[in-house]
């Protein structure tokens, strides 16, 4: 505490000394001080606003400061335990985001999310070791429409003899994979992969921000669990982990739902230009700087990289001889009083 007070005194390292003034009515002495101090000072008959200088007072002040520092340390230590829970989740999300940023094609990640969503909806609507009559076929059909944008004959599949939940899962997965392949064929691999990566990163960022806000709300009221004889830290860890799993599940559903329903709209000219750009650049190697010039003004396109031949190496004597022939480069004369000379002066003159 003393060091913090010295830092706020404003001397900023200038030579001098610090003097501390403390009132017995301050919170430091009133809350953390000795209870016998007031009674003893009242017996001495000291007047109000009279200075008290005594080693016993200094010792009582040091003990009060130690109590305050110990209390603040425990508070910071407890807060750090809560921060570690959030920090562990932050490391997982940041590592996944870095992996997504390193690659150009995230189709495998998106396909894995889509397959996990299919696994979840099948498990939710088809109980384990249940007969086909016990399946919730209507909800499964609605989930496929809502999340996968697929209208599948699941009712007819469920009516087949000897059908199992694994076969239903495989048929839905095959249909979703064919739908994804059709989108790649429709828009082109480069355009579709770019859209997948952009949408995945946007949804990940927004989902993580919403999760942090939810954790803050949970942390503000978790201390009330102590009234129910429960450890607030353990309660926070359990609920934060459950919320993190819910966030990841929601992330997979949002990414899958958006990518299966999205329809990229490109102008015919833009789409043709995007498809022809890599091939044109490979065949002609035309410099885009001369794209707007007339054919006569622009240099001819180089058909083959072999047309470029390296310049011969020059020795030091040849370089000096060339500089002697060129001479010193002189800039136009500049006259501050003559405006006609202002525009002819070189930029670096």
TrEMBL record:
Q: Does the keyword Membrane apply?
A: yes
Q: Which Gene Ontology BP annotations are present? A: intracellular protein transport; protein import; protein targeting; protein transport by the Sec complex
Gene3D superfamilies in alphabetical order: Helical scaffold and wing domains of SecA, P-loop containing nucleotide triphosphate hydrolases
Compartments in which it is found: Membrane
UniProt KW keywords: ATP-binding, Membrane, Nucleotide-binding, Protein transport, Translocase, Translocation, Transport
One GO MF term: ATP binding
Ranges for domain SecA family profile come to: 1-53
Pfam families attached here? P-loop_SecA, SecA_SW
How does it sit in the bilayer?
Peripheral membrane protein
Q: Name one GO cellular component term.
A: cell envelope Sec protein transport complex
| Family membership noted in the UniProt record | Belongs to the SecA family.
Q: What is this protein called?
A: SecA family profile domain-containing protein
Species annotation? marine metagenome
């Amino acid at each position: 505490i003393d060091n913090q007070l010295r830092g706020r005194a404003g001397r900023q390292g200038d030579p001098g000394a610090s003097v501390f003034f403390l009132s017995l009515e301050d919170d430091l002495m009133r809350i953390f001080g000795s209870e016998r101090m007031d009674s003893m000072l009242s017996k001495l008959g000291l007047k109000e606003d009279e200075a008290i200088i005594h080693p016993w007072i200094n010792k009582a002040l040091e003990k009060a400061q130690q109590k305050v520092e110990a209390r603040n340390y425990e508070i910071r230590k407890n807060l750090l335990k809560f921060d570690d829970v959030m920090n562990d989740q932050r490391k997982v999300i940041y590592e996944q985001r870095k992996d997504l940023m390193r690659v150009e094609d995230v189709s495998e990640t998106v396909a894995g999310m889509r397959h996990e969503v299919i696994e979840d909806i099948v498990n939710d609507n088809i109980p384990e070791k249940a007969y086909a009559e016990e399946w919730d076929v209507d909800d499964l059909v609605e989930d496929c429409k809502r999340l996968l944008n697929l209208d599948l004959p699941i009712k007819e599949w469920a009516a087949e003899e000897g059908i199992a939940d694994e076969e239903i899962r495989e048929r839905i997965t095959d249909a979703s994979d064919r739908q994804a392949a059709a989108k790649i064929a429709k828009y082109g691999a480069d355009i579709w992969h770019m859209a997948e990566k952009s949408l995945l990163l946007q949804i990940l960022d927004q989902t993580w921000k919403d999760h942090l806000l939810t954790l803050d709300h949970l942390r503000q009221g978790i201390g009330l669990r102590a009234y129910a004889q429960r450890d607030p830290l353990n309660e926070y860890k359990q609920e934060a982990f459950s919320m993190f799993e819910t966030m990841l599940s929601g992330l997979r559903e949002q990414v899958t739902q958006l990518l299966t329903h999205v329809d990229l709209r490109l102008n015919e000219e833009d789409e043709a230009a995007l498809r022809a750009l890599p091939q044109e650049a490979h065949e002609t190697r035309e410099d885009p700087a001369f794209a707007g010039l007339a054919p006569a003004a622009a240099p001819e396109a180089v058909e083959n990289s072999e047309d470029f031949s390296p310049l011969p190496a020059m020795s030091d004597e040849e370089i000096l001889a060339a500089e002697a022939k060129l001479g010193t480069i002189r800039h136009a004369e500049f006259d501050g009083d003559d405006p006609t000379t202002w525009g002819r002066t070189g930029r670096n003159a």
